[in-house]
Task: structure prediction
Amino acid sequence: MRAELNQQPSQTRKRALSTFEFVGHHRQTILLVAVFIALFTFFSITEKKFLTTRNITSMGFQLPEIGVLSLAMMITILTGGINLSVNATSNMAAVIAGLYLVKYVPKDAPESQIWFALVIAMLLVLLVGLISGLLNGFLIGYIRVPPILATLATMTFFTGISTGLTGGATVTGFPEQVAIIGSKTFIGIPIPFIIFFVVTVLMYIILTRTSFGFKVRMLGTNPVAANFTGIDTQGVLLKVYALSGILSSITGVLIMGRTMSAAYEYGTTTYVLLTILIAVLAGVVPGFGSVVNVFIAVLILQVLSSGFTMKLAGIRGSSFFKDFAWGILLILIFIVNYLTKMRTSR
Amino acid sequence: MLNKIIRSNEFVIFVILVALSLVIGWINPAFYSWATVFDVIRASIVYFIMAYGLLPIIIAGGIDISFVAIAAMSSYTVHMFLINQGYQGGILLYYVLGCLLGAAAGLLNGILVTRFKLPVFDVSLATFTMWYGFTLFFIGATANFDLPKGSVGYYARFLITFQDPNVGTTGLHESFLYVVILGFFIWWLLKYTTLGRGVFAMGGNRDVAIRTGFNVNRIQLVLFIIMGTFSAIAGVTQGFLSRYFNPVLFIAQPLDVLAAIILGGAAITGGSGSVLGTTLGVLLIQLINRALILTGIQVEWQRLVLGIILILFTAIPSIRTLRARRVGRMIQS
Result:
């Protein structure tokens, strides 16, 4: 991961890369693609039901939630921070939008009114994400609370809001149209996956093609130096956590669409650690990290999870094997990374 | 001297603790009782132990979250193994086997970190997932309530007992002794051994520590073994205190323990931290958790209040350092 330091000068100089350099700069991406292809091929050969439209579509419905959430986590890690409140934010956004839909939209409302309400609900979701992100950004950027503490506290706070508003119950009874986001396909591609893909592309552009993205990476590489170069570090942090909040709230919409419900407890604890795991698998470290790698890492985890669930179907506790496999895979990738780095640096 | 104490982070946390107790006691006088004190201590025991094991690693500049998984794996595995063997003896064998497993698991983290030069956090994330997956898939996925005959009654073995008019007999549980012993051990290790000084040196500046002559790899290995052992002790103790063994023990708690240590004044980047601060940090978080029940706030809103308190309390030390820095800058100019 440290060797990726080389990436900076070559990008600015814009000269053609030799094959050797290309491999050096994109080692993590190449490794991840190789792992993905290997796992995909393995499961396709050994499991008849794996390479079917049905299974691929079902994976396309499952992975976007964790995918968008991982992007929300990733940008905060890029600045040298962390955002433990991602999942709490998405649940809070979903709960607030869900309560609005259930309480203020009559069941027999005309279609146009429902669509209008849905637009309002989506705006509400994004607003909740923005506000919660701004709170994190304020605590971390301006009051200088360590990110891990600040977001742990806001995680409890946001979960508290969802619990309080719902009394711990699940919010259900949304208009049918909400399900379009979670269970419909567009030219055969699941809509959540399209959303995930669009978000990934947008994030790629933001992080690699804008001055904001450059500042984010500078801040992660060396906060002191970034400060002395005149970057408004507090403002950048505020924006990063706001963006992270908005991304988290988009996940809230995806969860709402898939389950047709909202609750304070969806994915608690496991989702947060899973997003960190994906970021680590993708080789995201403060200052360096690629959105493409995160995208592939999400695909890998989904393939591994679906594959092992199929393979071990019927065995007691089979769904837990994937956790074990994820851990082993992560360790193996670390070791391969270390060994290849040794070779290239020699 | 007095000035130094007042300025220390430990003192701030202590003041917050006292202030919080006064507020809760003012809302509900029932808070002032031995029952509450022992209840908070009993709830904190395992967190104290895990936090003490984790503290040196944090001071040395690493962040670990796998300690909870090690606690769950070692305690649950030992329990299931012994129960299947028909073991009916006391608790000592649990601790011995648990510590061995825990130490081995800690050593695995340590080897991965030192041999392959990996960040502590990344490795711990992998082993966190791995150990929970391992326990749930290979050992068992349900909580087990069978206890060996020799350990029955252990949960109520008190050092001191009190008669409380509301709760009945309460007391200070025997396992509090472990907390005291382990806490003093870490304090001694950090303060009076070369290894301990190396831990601080590593956290302050790793390269300088290496050039000074500290064997940082060996230090890290030892710290991970300690962490694994302490986690196992905490896991087994929790099993006997709650009278069942759980494969997903503490799965939601790693960040709470981490927060308690950071709240107690340890820098997340390493180089500083103390046993006293950690103790106060753990107590503060447990007190908040327990006390909310006594304040009469509706259950569904309690978590919200907890969140607000946490936001305020994590912000207070930061605001203090901000102000101190600003004053420092004024003096300089």
User: Anything to note?
Assistant: The CA atoms of residues 207 and 214 of chain A lie 7 Å apart.
